[in-house]
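Bench notes, bay 3.
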Amino acid sequence: MITPVLPASPESIRRAAAIIQRGGLVAFPTETVYGLGANATDAEAVARIFTAKDRPLTDPVIVHIAKAADLDSVARDLPPAAHVLTAAFMPGALTLVLRRAARIPALVAAGGETVAVRMPSHPVAQALIRDSGVPIAAPSANTFSRPSATTAAHVLEDLDGRIDLILDGGAATIGVESTILDLTVAPPTILRPGGIPVEAIRALLPDVQVAARYLGVETAAAAPGQMLRHYSPRAALALYTGTDDDATLARMRADIAAAQAAGRRVGILVSDDAAHLTAALTADLGTALEVVSARLFAALRDLDAQGVDLIVVRWTRREGLGAAIWDRLVRASNGRVIVVKP
């Protein structure tokens, strides 16, 4: 089977909705990354997501809704904070972990009693959910552990022949996944930094905490995006950080030279003051955090396509979207962070 890719017109969205209704799989754009959607109330359809992605059943998927009133149809016992956050950030790049409603199969939640719920702001995603008439379960539209798809071409690269249709709505604008906030625990806890900065959530929930752990694939998670090995290019990725700029860049130069001397093809994710490093291949991330987040996954895929063996990147910023970018780079490196001392 060859998976068709259609421009996201009203006609193709209606075609995609019909596929969702009959239990099929559709990749569609959101403002964060592309999602791989199925009817969230149909356990067999949801199971097809895991098969298509080679995704472990321990990794839950997010349920997408089109309007705030739909929260009660997918979750139960909503805390007051859910309404506050929904009013402030939805539609948008925030996912709430809530108590799972009975109509949502346990498979969506890795067998657990919670459910991760999001209301995307992308007009194509909104239209697809409305036309389907059901909540849509959708993780990122890529094979498991690969960099997330931010264009229809990325989806096709990973999932051609595995899914029924790809809706092409252009490149995702945010480029990293949603922030995941667990409201079933006290204090509320951010399980994954993402498109909504921690600082913005803390302005409404001052006691919110940030989880500081990553899980292995054998552990059932409360929400997606908890596993350490994730968002990974085929090449090894070396992540550098340190408070002394000169020392960090000197270490990177030395490691690049050693890798090249050993015959390895090296690529650099270039951002900010690392721009003057030299290697055989580079991918420009830009400087502004919004630009870096939008380009990150595409840059990893681009260097993979050029056949590099090693990707090096320096990252120090943790404010706003910087925290989400750091999280994705840690996972892409499988936790291999090189902290350079002065």
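Next record in the batch:
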Amino acid sequence: MHEKESSNILNEYTKPGTFQNNSWIFFSLIILFIILFFLFKNEIIEKPLSSEELKSSLEIFNISSHWVVKKEIKDDDFEGIILVPEIHFQVRNVGNSDLKYVFFLGVFRFLDSGKTIGEGFKMGLKKALPPGQISHKIKLTSGLGYRASSKDAFEKHQKDWQSSFVEVFIKRRSSQLTFFKSYYISRKIEGMNIKVRI
């Protein structure tokens, strides 16, 4: 009798389609849960910011700039260095929500002509920056600049230097690339006590 009851119970679970139907419902619920989780995470927990909201949530401070040796060149027709502008700064979150994965772009230009020297970019705030907190130091370095035989040569040829500045742009996720602010670039050369003057 006991064996007969056990057999009947097993038959209930081995009827055609029973296990398949239960599995389909189970996996459908899992997929639905995952979709709802990501919708909730993106729309509620990490609500996308508009360009203006992102701009008003950031404060750039502790700014410093100078020129640095980007590359040493040893070619048949030229031996020297490429000196490029660079800016350092920190960011404070003055908004009401965490900031993460903020992209910074620096467009370096000559002051008089507005001609582009080069660009530098950085994916900052890889870890969430809560409201009121301060980021690590972020560095933007131009890919192009002046070419000379040495750093000392820039002091000897001051007349060839032009004043420059950088336009900082910001972007987060689906927001548009937005102009943030412009900053002058110092004429100091990294590793040297001189300040190039014209």
